[in-house]
């Protein structure tokens, strides 16, 4: 039987969320004894655990049909594969940082300076785009200590909160790339693999939608009902049920995570009471 072979990071920042995504898609991986490969019972899929840096190459070579990797790694490696879906986790940015005390005057500040990074390709592209000539020092880890030990005047590294930079006496001055985890696919998938991928993608999209939405239940006085309903778009329109208490209704709807706090406040102002917010497991539209 045909299986969809997927490569995910074997340990590190993308591991937990990648496994969680598979689980939320109803794909139960059996913990293999050797953690190189896992099978699953309920979806024709084989999971390979690899270093994230190797995933684009494996997908290009069709050792894996698809893979989960950060956009930062995908664009740095420049392998032949397609991005099919942004996954909404592993969010970070590839940023330029310089000494806290330095005065940043724009990209020209870096001219003639040494920049330490693990992303020489992306950094060179960014320098070219900004018409700046600088020397790239490629190092594979702990890039943030390079200025402190006199190896470079600036760094380009992944940042999420910025606290690592701060602790190393650096400040962030530019964003080279905003990144998140993506699903990539071999460019020439067979018909059967492509069909499995479509099935997998359908599940991923349902999970993503559910994560971005909340189910809301509230009580509304009937004389404010129209106003409250207007605030709640819902999937079609909100469900309204009479409460046992005369003059009140229960209203159910779905609201997007993005507008959540804004809408909740307006609902309260409009007289809604007993507002319950519940996570949604899957959402199929
Ligand atoms: P591997 O052993 O697989 O090569 P690694 O050490 O290169 O792992 P991790 O630090 O686990 O990689 O990061 C994997 C990916 O997680 C990054 O390439 C990036 O896409 C994403 N990521 C999200 N937030 C951050 C962050 N704050 N710092 C670094 N990477 C992050
Ligand atoms: Zn890596």
- Strand count: 15
Strand content: 25-35%
Task: State the secondary-structure class.
Answer: alpha/beta
Contiguous uncertain segments of 5+ residues:
none
What Rg, in angstroms, do the CA atoms define?
24 Å
CATH superfamily of the largest domain: Periplasmic binding protein-like II
Based on the coordinates given, report the CATH architecture of the largest domain.
Answer: 3-Layer(aba) Sandwich
- CA distance, first residue to last residue: 30 Å
User: What is the succession of H and E elements?
Assistant: EHEEHEHEEEHEEHEEHEHEEHE
**Secondary structure tally, helices:** 8
Q: List the ligand species.
A: adenosine-5'-triphosphate, zinc ion
Count of separate structural domains = 3
Let me know the largest β-sheet. 6 strands, mixed
Mean pLDDT: 94
CATH class of the largest domain: Alpha Beta
Physical arrangement of strands within the biggest beta sheet: 2-3-1-4-11-5
**CATH fold-level name of the largest domain:** D-Maltodextrin-Binding Protein, domain 2
**Gross morphology:** flat
Question: Portion of residues in helices?
Answer: 25-40%
